[in-house]
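Table S2 (continued). Query chain:
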Amino acid sequence: MGFAGPTWLDGDNIIEGQVFLNGAYLDGNSSNGEVSQAEFEAVISHELGHFNNLDHAQINGFKYEAGLAPATSVETMFPVLLTVEQRFPAKDDEVALSLLYPTSSFASTTGTITGTIFNLTPGGKMAFTGANVIARNIADPWNDAVSQVSGVTKIPAGVYTLSGLTPGANYTVEIQSIDPSFTQGSSVGPLDPPIPLPGPSEFYNGSNEESTDPPDNPNDYTTIKVSAGVVVSGVDILINTGIPQPGPTPTLVHTATPKPPSGATPTPTVTPREAGPFFHLPRKVLRTKAISR
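Corresponding output:
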């Protein structure tokens, strides 16, 4: 139906952009495909988002298709046209625009959560780029939700920042895979094709944040309260791969062993052994397939 984007830059400033729209969808000829005027207006809003340098987003589109989220919460920048309500920007669209073109009070009047997504591998803990990270206000989880793909700038890897949050609200932070159908012109984030999470979708779980279940049940969460002008940092998520983290290496302390008296029977020394780790295999993730543009 259309495509758009910046075409000429001067440093960080967009000097020129373009928007292409396919008017055949409004020519009254059903043989070449028709949409309503309201649907085409949603396409215009979406492409103008790209014109202003917005990326695609994945927050409530699939939730709406599953009958969970209201149509009014579907982000304009979701890669698929689902509802005429995408004519109007959702919270994530507004925050993305505000980050690119902020008012002087944006940072001081909203909250921010930041952290890093990690993947525990047999070779050690590594930052993971390509996870879709979403913050949801538990009092209004569909309408007050923002997202960013971890490592969106690629350097540093795995880092995410969720801005524009409502002061005083409590948020969950969750990670999920980008849908594998979102590639090329419908891609989300810096990777094309997207890389699936090596574990299930899950929430940040505070002190229980781990790479195994237990103690880190992917459905358990710890909420984070945000304040105006304050950045809550260190909200790191360790993907639940089922690979246990290694315990601390014990420090060996050499001590002198007293010599038993002549004729005495030495007492055997009992060396305590640490029990092996217990963990579950990662759960399978069911994802809705979508037809992208």
